[in-house]
Amino acid sequence: MSSIKIAVFASGHGSNCRALYEAIISGKLNAEIGLIVSNNPDAGVLTWAKEKELAHIHISSEQFDDKLQFHHALLRHLALHHIQMIVLAGYMKKIGLPLIEAYPNKILNIHPALLPSFGGKGMYGEHVHKAIIDYGAKITGVTVHLVDPEYDHGAIVMQKALEVSENDTPQTLAQRVLALEHQTYYRALQLFAENKVIIKDRKVFLSRNI
Ligand code: GAR
Q: For the CA atoms of the chain, what is the radius of gyration?
């Protein structure tokens, strides 16, 4: 069974990163976390990575004179760790073109709603769940998609839905969606590990004969 070496990019707590790690440990995901990248020096995910003795770096464009230097440094780290795919897990920075070009169709993101609804600039974390409740949507869910230059726009790999209840607050909804994210992300990534993903005309198809 093939295995892929991934870098997980996270800005906060990193529960999705931990769920991926657990899926690897329990044999549900054939991947190796080669590097954890955070733009936030205080991110919980970095403390956790240290505990688990996983390679990790704090790197952000603010540490460099310009974006080009930042991307060069980041790409150098990814190459040093032989990273094959990038997995965004609550990474609150836009992914720049140099990264997208270096990893074509190899950057995944998880979004806490059913795209193309409730996505785009400013739609992250609790803002998403508040917008869903304010709109009165009855269904929400999670979307795993490939990253392209536009926010929350790349080809969709997997979606799972759940019902919004009348008693939900942005916080209760966030909790249930996050639990669903943990059940979904490793499954989407496993499709790549098994080489099952075919991308045609900006759409994802699954190969049936593998
Ligand atoms: C997750 O809900 C993830 O979908 C969301 O941030 C949270 C991170 O949680 N990402 C976005 O909103 C990106 N647009 P975590 O740090 O516990 O994994």
A: 17
Residue pair 109/147 in contact (Cβ under 8 Å)? The answer is yes
Nearest to 14 by CA among 92, 117, 122: 92
Q: Which CATH superfamily is domain 1-103 in?
A: Formyl transferase, N-terminal domain (3.40.50.170)
Output the residue whose Cα is nearest ligand 1's atom 8.
90
Mutate which of 124, 180, 185 for ligand 1 pocket (most atoms within 8 A of beta carbon): 124
Neighbouring CB atoms inside 10 A of 191's CB total 17
Which of 20, 121, 128 should be mutated for ligand 1, with most atoms under 8 A from CB?
128
- Could you confirm whether 13 is annotated as catalytic? no
Residue among 187, 71, 176 at smallest CA distance from 128: 176
Domain boundaries defined on the chain: 1-103, 109-210
Element (H, E) at 205: strand 203-206
Q: Are 89 and 10 in contact (CB under 8 A)?
A: yes
Range 109-210: architecture per CATH? 3-Layer(aba) Sandwich (3.40)
The string of pLDDT tens digits covering residues 105-163 is 999 999 999 999 999 999 999 999 999 999 999 999 999 999 999 999 999 999 999 99
CATH fold match for the domains 1-103 and 109-210: yes
